Amino acid sequence: MRRVHWSRWLLRVQWGLLGIIVLAGLALRFGLLRFELVFMIFTYAGGAALTVALVSLLVFVWGSRNHRPQARSNALWAALLGLLPVAVPLITVGKDNFNAPKIHDITTDTRNPPAYQAVLDLRKPWDNSAAYGGEPVASQQRETDIYSDIYPLHVHMSVARTTELAAEVAKKLGWKIVSYEPEKGHIEATDRTLLLGFTDDIVVRVRPEDDGGSRVDVRSSSRVGVSDLGANAKRIREFIEELHLRVLSEQYGEPSDA
Question: Can you give the three-state secondary structure of 184-203, one letter per residue?
Fold first, then answer.
């Protein structure tokens, strides 16, 4: 019977740590565990995986010098597995978004942001406050380059029709509409992040302008966490871009992706 080299335990430990991270993520997505506990699990399990990866690199060097192919192979795979907790967030979130300020509430109008109403009843007591953080949050958004393209959309269309198109865009993007008042120019919705299923709140405000057109403002905020890693800004960009295409299509007959 072939003996299993002791370096095999490096792989077993890494698979165990990755399993813990995956299970914690699933528990968070299905509402079985709260974010604070899962974040702690991610932090400690991910740190342990990186530590084992560093040890594995040393074992890889040792195996190479002492002609131990099994140790070298096990150590190499263990090192690669240990990088997954870092590589996956980098790929899915994007390197630049890790430099985002520690805010989780983004809006196209930092001086008078749209207010939440209907979604307030859906929030848990331990969720982030639905009240806007005021100038401290606004100044961080305005002074950060990755948010420089977050601004209102001005269209030559009535409030009611603009709101109708906005609701169509929200549904296309997969948002769950909570409140829809086209005559008042008000939409509220929720959206869930892809991997961990975080629920974020969105409010769209459409107001009339002096030229007969409308101004569209959007606010998107996370219920949990300190920093959103750019998720809310990404959501607003997608919405504004798609709504702009819808408006152009209706006004000038230009093709949209509807």
Answer: CCEEEEEEECCCCCCEEEEE
